[in-house]
Each structure stands twice: as structure tokens, then as C-alpha cells.
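Morning run. Coffee first, then this:
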Amino acid sequence: FVHDYELYLEEGRLYVAKRPPMGEEILESGRLIFQEGRPAMEGETHPSPPYEPEETIGIGFQSFSSPVGYTRAGHKAMLDRSGNLLLPFVDSVPGLCPPVKLDSRSDFEAFYREMAVHFDFNLEDTDSPAFSRLADQYTDEFFRDNTLLLVFLVEGSPANRSLVDSITLDREGRMEIIIRRWSLPGDQVRTGRFLAVNVSKEDIAAMVICQVLAVP
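And here it is:
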């Protein structure tokens, strides 16, 4: 429980008054002391836990970007699919559908069949493999230790590119996926691409909320 603390001077010494949040009542007071380098109130009955800064760690991952084209029906199907995601998600990237989480080969095969009627999985460009070529790597052996996150991004031009730059996880379970996007000269035609992100099941198990951020 968080309290408000106020310093005051009495007989040349600093004291601390402890109050309820936004309240006026003084619950208890005591001389200002330092414990292990942190300020504290002498004799406090139930001291607040010391502030600990958030710690984030980089997560090992592998990712691929594949052009798949765009259809309204496909966009809706991806939104419907990601709407069934059990983990809370925060979206701050324009044109992005929340990640679809696939935990097994059977999950992947069902997803592939469902989305193949909406997208062209044989599309590829000079630096992005076709999604159909990636499918062979998602075997039972892969899913034994890994989870696949699939992010669908709507692009304004087939020349635009996107990739996963980094993934971090803090000790509260907040996962951040950082996407780097850039535009190249090309026709202004709406299209889309999948970002396939391979993450270990151990890291996914620690995730409580997921956020995707874009950087220039």
C-alpha cells in the first residue's frame, strides 16, 4: 500500500510524517534516518518496500519478413484471429494487427489453411522469402521449445520494408517487440506482410502483456 510522506523540521532535526494517499491524517511520524543508503522513517510500523528500478533483458529471437499481399477479408481474418489472443496486447504501430500466437504444428497448419484463401503465400521479393518457403521449418521439433508470433502489417507500397529490431522482457512480464520500418520508392499500392517471430516457450511463459513499437 502506497503512502504519502512529508518532511518537517523539529528542534533542528528532520522528521517524516506518514499520511494516507492524498489524505491529511498523520498515521505516524519519526525521525528521518538512512538504512542501507535509503531514506527511511525511524520506528515505522509497516515501511513501504524500497523502490527498485525496472530491469529489462534482451530476448533471443529469430524473425522473417514475408510479403503476402492485402485483401479486406484477409485483414479482417487476421484481426479476428488475433482477437482470440489470450495475452493482453498494446498496439502503437499504425496498420498493425496484434500478434497471432501459434504453439504447435497443428496450430500452424490450421492457421495456414485458413489464411491461404485470403493471402498469396508464394509472394517474395529480393530480400524477403515467400511465406510458403518458411512453412517447412515450423515442425513438431521446432514447437517443442518455441512459439511462433505472427504479426500482420499493412503497407502503403510493396517497396516498404519492416523487420523486428529487438525484443525485451522486464521482470513484470512486459514484452516489447521493436519493429523498424522504412519506405523505398515504389508504386503506392496497399499490400501487407507477415513478420514471423520465433521466441522460446520459456520467454513466452513469462510474458504478461505484449507491446509492439515502431522505430524509424
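The mean pLDDT is 82. Good start to the day.
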